[in-house]
Structure formats: structure tokens, C-alpha cells
Amino acid sequence: MIRKAKPESSPQPELPANTIYLNRELSQLAFNRRVLAQAEDASVPLLERLRYLCICSSNLDEFFEVRIASLLANRIEGENIDPPELRAALERTSAECHRIVTRQYQLLNEEILPQLARNGVHLLRHEDRNEAQRAWVKHYFEQNVRPLLTPIGLDPAHPFPQVHNKSLNFIIELSGKDAFGRGTAVVIVKAPRVLPRVIKLPANLSPKGSCSFCLLSSVIHAHIADLFPGREIIAYSQFRVTRNSDLWVDEEEVKNLRQALETELQSRQFGVAVRLEVASNCPAHLADFLLNQFNIERNRLYAVQGPVNMVRLSEIVNLVDLPDLRFPPFSPTLPPHLANESIFAALDRKDVLLHHPFQSFQPVVDFIRSAAHDPKVLAIKQTIYRTGMNSDLMEALIYAAQHGKEVTVIVELMARFDEEANINWAVKLEQAGAQVVYGVVGLKTHAKLALVIRSEERGLRFYAHLGTGNYHPNTTKFYTDFGLLTSNQELTAEVNEVFIHLTSLTKPRSLSHLWLAPFSLQKEIIRAIRNEAQIAREGRPARIIAKMNALLDESVIRALYAASADGVKIDLIVRGACALRPGVRGLSENIKVRSIIGRYLEHSRIYYFRNDLAHDVYLASADWMNRNLFRRIEVAFPVLDKTLKKRVISEGLNPYLKDNTHSWHLDVNGGYTLKKPRSKAQSFNAQQHLMTTLGIPATPPDE
Fold it and tell me: What is the 3-state composition of the chain as percent helix, strand, coil, each rounded to the nearest 5?
């Protein structure tokens, strides 16, 4: 057990906040730079490089939709931030965003598209298409595109139309007069959202062994003049607007959160505009017209050398069947002892630790599915944060409810960008007879928990799954996460207490094993950090290793600084934004921060404390961010089985500390440097190691 720490012996230096903390937005953009570096890496298969480029664009979209929108909201409301500080933050982030976007399109046009063409994958502009291809595109336009287009000529009777968030649109300037003799010069054309953005040409229109594509924007560009017979097009450009996508409902006022959210979802597409993207050849006066229309400042205008929505190019990755241009296929393994007996019999013998995606998520699906069909199972309880539109887990819960089992599902309706899917599942579950609860007002339910209550000869028995990731069929294949299947009756009883807390809204009982946010999680993290500091002050080895997606909570960072000053050796594996500044003399010189960017998205949250060789290991749903520790329902849970604890250390921590191929090290100034091996023979890739050697006997971290 972690002891109560004595007061710190080494006071922290009194430094300004902007000195001891790194800027959140710039740190988040630095993460996107590391993703972009994967697209730049010539050793990465070509289609995967294109995928990384699209991920970089998607990340930037969300950065504007959430972070920039949040900064601008502060400016509008005049709260929480000093105007000069806000202005400086916007200027710094704007400059970095422009640099990233410039590099993206340079990489696309100068490296990735030409190399794809050399490998028989052609993205054809109008000028690149031969006569047969142009004829096919013209026919496609006439049959599939033109009937769906509705040009809007702007005049007092036709004001500027509503433009959806991140939709493809065109602005056209015409000469002459319209059919009624008036000089309506500007027309807006919205690309129908039902049409694919990437169009594959028939095989007979491409050289043998190759495939050809064109973009919807290119098809419309080529034939846009056909929409305006008798008038000349003076200028035109594609454009795309990014809007504030944070949903807000007054949870204290609404009587039905789901209905209120359904209404709010309809308005998300038309939130405050925060970014404008146009083609690089867009005339300045048309760009100015759009900026004025959307009330966007010029530094948030992006004139790009290619499609305004680079994310759509990921469709090429999905449509091209060239294995040599992809990562080698990988099939996850299954724990062998689960194959020969029921999941409940297996868990009665010992806990099961699953490390995704290296190990299959199927045992978790089988756990819920078996519970749904097992006549001895009386009740199933589960939290849902992200699960996707199609889910075997949700279907199993629906089946269980329909067949008389007590099914309780905590559905988080405010899971960003998954709200619609979660609402749909909530409706289906309610219709099947499940008890659906929408969490706690004002707090997102982010914990990943499932509980099965089974009637056995020895009485009611609890079985549980606790995880670091979502119950989503796709992300489990591409995100690294841990999941624990357990029949430990102390631990599972506490899981049940959490569910009772969430449904009844009563204060949870004192929990011996689980750290629960917003009540105890931050306090326990800081207590564990201070315990290591006390051990160090007493002259014994002290060590902390923590792996997470983001580190931003100031109280936790200050505790880490204090522990560093007391001599605790601290290694932090932080994939994304990190506000902690490592390597500051007298403050953080014992702290190292690294970020791993590889084939899979690092998503596991692991907290390790040496604690005088007790080797305390916690897995969690929470990053060390203020929102996770105080504005969400989160759970950190201990790994109690010594063998499984060693596995977490040897699979989830040690390989990442050894990685010298995908490990980026954070310096004192907030910059990241990719660690490189001295020779190929000395290279070590943590994710590749886990793919090839999962199950190797584990050891605690090196002392």
C-alpha cells in the first residue's frame, strides 16, 4: 500500500507559469508535426504515408473545431484569459498551422502523388486526363452530379446560403447579366454530401495493372461552365469552412438530455466559423468576400495547393489493392486457455489481461455475448463512450434485454463526434427493455467498465471487464489498449459500486482498489507521486513511469516537479500534448518525456510506482488532464495478479523506454527530437517487438 507522504523537504522554485508550463496548443500542434513526420518517412509504405497525411489533416480539423474555437470563444466572452495573452496564443498557433499545411501539400504534390503514379495509382486532374477519360468524366457529371447541383446566385432574394461544417463548396464570379437582366455576379454551388469525393474510373480507362481516380472537385471544376450557359466564368474557387463543433446544452435546465442533444446536433453543422480554406488560385477579392461573409480573420485563411479537404484522400487508401504499398498484414492472437472452456470458467481460474491490438478484442465481445445467452446470468451493466454505428457488443446487450436479463447501460451522449451513434444505440436499448442512463449531469462518463452478475451454487458472483480503451470494433484494431477480465470479487464489487453511484447519483462508498474521478483519482495520483518523493528523501531508489495521451493538469505536474527535485527518476510516455517542461535545473532535471508515434495509435494509460519494490501498476481510462480528473467519470484500477502486473510492465512500458526508431524526446524548450539508433542492428521498434514477441516472460523495469 502507498503510505501517507511526509511534507516535501525541497520547496519548488517560484517561477512564472509561462516558464514552468509549455503551451497546450503548441504542444498539440507539435504532436501533429510528429504525425506528419510519419508521412515524410520514406521507409513507411506509400499508401500508409498518404494515410498519415490524411490523419494529420483530420487532426488539424479537430484542432480548429475545438481548440481554436475555444480560444476564440474566450475572446468573444472576455473570460479566463488576458486579451494580449490570447492574441499571442492565436498568432503563434496560426503561424505553426500555416507551416504544417504548407508542408502537407508540398509533401502531397512533390512526393506522395508522383510516387503513387509510378506505382500505377493515378489521381488525375482535368489536364491529366486523356480524351476517353474526359468523355467518361463528362458523362459521369451529367448523369450523377449535375442533377444534384443547385447554384445559388446571390441577390437580396437569394442571400448567402447556409454552408455546412467542412463541406465542399464553390464560389463563382460571372460576367454579364442573368436571365432577368440583372448583374448577379457571384454564385455559390454546394457539392452534394451524398456524392463520393473520390471517384474511381473504370479499369478499361487505365493502363493495365494500374488504377485511376479523380476528385469530385475536379469533376465539378471541369464542367462548372456548363451550369451557366450564355455567361462567362471570370473566376472561381473551391472553398471549405471549419466551424466550432463543441456541443453545448444547459444540462441544469433541460428535462431530457437526449432530446436536447438531438436538437443541438442539428445546429453543430452551422457553428461559428473558425477557418476558411480556398484553392491557391482563388482571386483575392473572392477570398475577401468569403472572409467577410463568415467573419473570419485573414490569418485563418488557408490557400492550399490541392483539394481543400485532404482528409478525403484516405478513400484512395481504402480503394487501392496493392499490399506492397501497405504495412504487412497482422493478425492478433487469442489467449490459448480461453479456447477450451467457457469464459466464466476461465476467469474463475485466473484473470485475463488483453493487450490490444496485439491480442484480439474478441474475448471481450465473447464475454458480453456469453453473458447475454447464459441462463445463469441475471444482470449485465456496461458503460458506453464510443462504440460505433455497428457493434456486436450492443447487439448482445439488446439480445440480453429482450430475453429478460437486467441490462443497465450508461451511455455517454456527449462523446464528441460519436453523439449520433450513441443516441441511436440508446434508443434501441430502451426499446429492447434495457435501463439506459445518460451518466451524471455536467460530467462525461469516460470510464470503460462492464459487469456481469451470475447466479451460481456459491451465490451471486461478479465478473468484470475494465479497460483503457473504448468498446469500439474499429479502434480496437488500431489503438494500443489494455483490458482486464477478472472475477476478483473485491475488485468486481467495487465496479458494481461505481455503477450504483452512476445510476443513483449517491456518493460512492469508500473504494479500496479503484481510483474514481472526480472524487479520488487526482488525489491518489498525487499521493502516489509524493510517496515516491518520500522514499527518495529517505535515500532509497524511487521511480515513476507513466504512459498516457496527454499531460496538462498543473497540480499533477507540480507534484512531479517536486518529486524530481527530491531525486525520483521519472519517465513519462506522453503521446500528445504535454505541458510539463522537462530538464529544468532544480525543477525537472530527473524527468524525461518521450512520445511514440508508430503504426498504431498509442492509447493505453498506465501508471507505475516502484513503491519500495511493490511495483504498483494501475491501468486507467484517464489522462492526466484537468478535464479527466475533475470533469469526467474516470476509473484507474490496479493490476493485482503479479504475473499480469509483470506483463503490463514488460509490454506496456519497458519496450517504449527502449524504442529508438519511433521515440520523440521532448526538450526543455518544448521541441521534440526523434531518437535514432547508431546502426540498423541496434534499432528497436516497440510496436514491432510487441507484434512479434508478445508473451515473452516479463520483468520489472530496470532498477
Answer: 40, 20, 35
Distance CA(25)–CA(293), nearest Å, equals: 27
CB 227 within 8 A of CB 168: no
Amino acid at 685: N
Three-state secondary structure call for residue 114: helix
What are the φ and ψ backbone dihedral angles of 177, each rounded to 5 degrees? -120, 160
Q: What is the b/e burial string over 364-396, where b = at least 16 CB atoms within 10 angstroms of the residue's CB?
A: bbbbbbbbbebeebebbbbbbbbbbeebbbbbb
Describe the strand order of the beta sheet including 198-200 as a list of residue ranges: 121-123, 211-215, 198-200
Contact call for residues 333 and 358 (beta carbons, < 8 A): yes
DSSP E strand stretches across 121-210: 121-123, 152-153, 169-174, 186-190, 198-200
pLDDT score recorded for residue 351: 95
What's the CA gap between 202 and 137, in Å, rounded?
A: 10
| CA within 13 Å, CB half, 544 | 31
Residue 159, number of CB atoms within 10 A of its CB = 10
Rounded CA-CA distance 504/660 in Å is 49
* Residues 564/12, Cβ–Cβ less than 8 Å: no
CA torsion, ordered 339, 381, 432, 384, to nearest 10 deg: -90
Catalytically active residues, by annotation = 446
pLDDT (tens digit, 9 = 90+) per residue, 316-367?
999 999 999 999 988 888 887 787 788 999 999 999 999 999 999 999 999 9
The SS3 of residue 506 is coil
Cis peptide preceding 329, ω within 30 of 0: no
Is residue 572 a contact partner of residue 553, using CB atoms and an 8 Å limit? no
**Is the Cβ–Cβ distance between 300 and 71 less than 8 Å?**
no
Cis peptide preceding 518, ω within 30 of 0: yes
pLDDT for position 418: 64
* 60: alpha, beta or left? (left if phi > 0; alpha if psi -120 to 50): alpha
Per residue in 530-554, pLDDT (tens digit) is: 999 999 999 999 999 999 999 999 9
Local structure of residue 521 (DSSP, 8 states): H
In which residue are the cell numbers 469500439 written? 472
- Distance (Å, whole) CA 609 – CA 618: 9
Q: In whole angstroms, what separates CA 15 from the centre of its chain?
A: 33
Question: Given CA atoms 315, 318, 322, 324 in this order, what sign does their dihedral have?
Answer: positive
C-alpha cell read off for 426? 440508446
The CA distance from 394 to 388, in Å, is 10
Burial class (CB in 10 A: 0-12, 13-18, 19+), 362: middle
The tens digit of pLDDT for each residue in 429-481 reads: 989 999 988 877 778 889 999 999 999 999 999 999 999 998 888 889 999 99
Greatest distance between any 2 Cα atoms in the chain: 90
610 Cβ contact partners less than 8 Å away, ≥ 6 residues apart: 532, 535, 541, 542, 543, 544, 616, 701
CA distance linking residue 420 with residue 231, whole number of Å: 43
Alpha-carbon distance of 249 to 101, in angstroms, equals: 33
Closest CA relative to residue 602, chosen from 480, 465, 450: 480
SS3 call for 349: helix
